[in-house]
Amino acid sequence: MPMTRRQRARAFRGVQYLIGLVVVVILALIIDWPTLVRSWFNIDVARQMFPRVITTGLLNTLQYTALGFVFGFTLAIVLALMRLSSIRVYRAVAMVYIELFRGLPALAVLIIIAFGIPRAFPGFRLDTWQMVAIGLGLTAAAYMAETLRAGIQAVPKGQVEAARTLGMSPMRTMVTIVLPQAFRIVIPPLTNEIILLVKDSSLVYTIGVTIEQYELTKLGQSNINQLASVTPLTVVALLYLCITLPLSWLVRRLERRHARAR
Q1: pLDDT one-digit tens code per residue, 27-75
Q2: Ranges for the ABC transmembrane type-1 domain (predicted)?
Q3: What is the mean pLDDT of the chain?
Q4: Per-residue confidence at 261, pLDDT binned at 50, 70, 90?
Q5: Domains of the chain
Q6: pLDDT digit string, tens, across residues 163-177
């Protein structure tokens, strides 16, 4: 008898699982496990990285991420409101900014902040923390502004009209009615932006940092040279996952909660 559609789908899945299992077995047989463990999972090498990889690398990565997010989020609110303004000049300026900084890589923005501005304005100096906050924040703001704009526009217009009917000014309506609801809507995508900032913090080394200002990637690279092993990359990767995986879980949970609320 010919198979039904469900039976064919089940057989097709079974074949896929079998192929995947065969590939895994072949890889397990041909990999040089002693060399792999010695190079990438050397416990003695990993032990030498502690506690500095936590007290310096991880801590600085979190601080750089926080600085970039705070600066970028503050600027993003202004840009989002400008994009929704009734004044054409404000809309044009915000649109140009967003398109420009969404098109520039974060590395280029950091280099411009660190080396371009001091040359353009002699005597004007920024310390490393200020350069990181501005450099990472400028790029993040362009993405977060569009996210916030979408969140503001998702708030039902009837609530705005009701607030205006009660005599609220446009500014008070935006601050007390619209923005709190918009923030609730955009929390999941903003959490994704934090994850991107965590990874973008690895670019900070390009502006020149001291040993005490090393973030995870730079610290891992330094330890590779000192310890003559690539195990530091494994340690750094695991620490990045310790930051990003909980954030990814939080995003999924918030998205499910928001879907149920709708």
Answers
A1: 999 999 999 889 999 999 999 999 999 999 999 999 999 999 999 999 9
A2: 58-251
A3: 90
A4: low
A5: 48-261 (1.10.3720.10)
A6: 888 888 888 888 888
Cα gap 173→168, rounded to integer Å: 6
- Return the SS3 of 6: helix
Four-CA torsion 178, 184, 187, 188, nearest 10 degrees = -120
In the chain, where does DSSP find H-type helix? 5-30, 33-40, 43-48, 52, 59-83, 88-103, 106-111, 117-120, 128-154, 157-165, 170-173, 179-200, 216-227, 231-261
Burial of 29-42, coded b for 16+ CB within 10 Å and e otherwise, reads eeeeeeeeeeeeeb
**Two tokens at 85?**
């303004």
Structure tokens at 134: 């501005």
The amino acid sitting at 239 is L
Residue the block writes with tokens 């990999």 = 31
